[in-house]
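Quick one: structure for this chain?
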Amino acid sequence: MTDSNENRPPHGDWLGTPYVRFERHGSLAHCIVDRPEARNAMTGSMYFAVRYAVNIVATDEDLAGMLLTGTGDVFIPGGDLSSTRVDEWGNLPGLLGIDSTPFEAIRSSAKPVVSAVNGICQGGGMLMAMLSDVAVASERATFRAPELYRGIADTGYATYLPTQVGVGRARDLLFTGRTLSAAEACDWGIVTRVVSHQELLDASIEALVACCRTAPDARLAVKRIVNDRYGHPDRMSMEHSLRGDEVVEGWRAFSERRAPSWIPEDLRPEGRL
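Got it. Here's what it folds into:
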């Protein structure tokens, strides 16, 4: 449980949560997800913190770009599905939907964002890595999109993945919930570089520096055209899904470490998916 003094909205370089840090390293910012006791599971405040960090970099003339990474063996695993309520400072963190998430902020950032994927990368974490300008993965990283096992119609994934990896591979990832190794994720195009775990930070900073050396206005024009290839997620359908019965059952099943009840009994595995 966090100290009550830490339950306050973002201000300056304070991101509104003790679990996401903002560090300045010269003209580069580091945004570090650091909640090891919960395997970096993202609260609403944590999601908003990453979005807010992108905004800090965008509006600060002293900053040229941002590195996003996690701690330990976890990058970002997606939203916290437990019943624990921490680091809440108002109503906004309760919006685990599109309003508080950083996906569009990363996608549309005028300044470069590079993800250093240090470990488990799934759910919202994989979306952040995909939408970064460059994603560099540790050889130890793994990738997964388990949303359909949680009852979530993630229209962001449905929009971005087919462009990123192709329709067939998008269906395979979303409909089976399979886990990809770092090498497979690179081969599929989810990330573009894989390095040894020890080289990850240096390689990611090197990529970010290279991006920051490009001409800002020209880079922005090119990024707009590249981003147009993705299209736009169906916000209404996803918000409807997040209020639906399947999400409730998906959350309960995850919390109770069992398979969801919508699975036929003869196909239902032991334990959660």
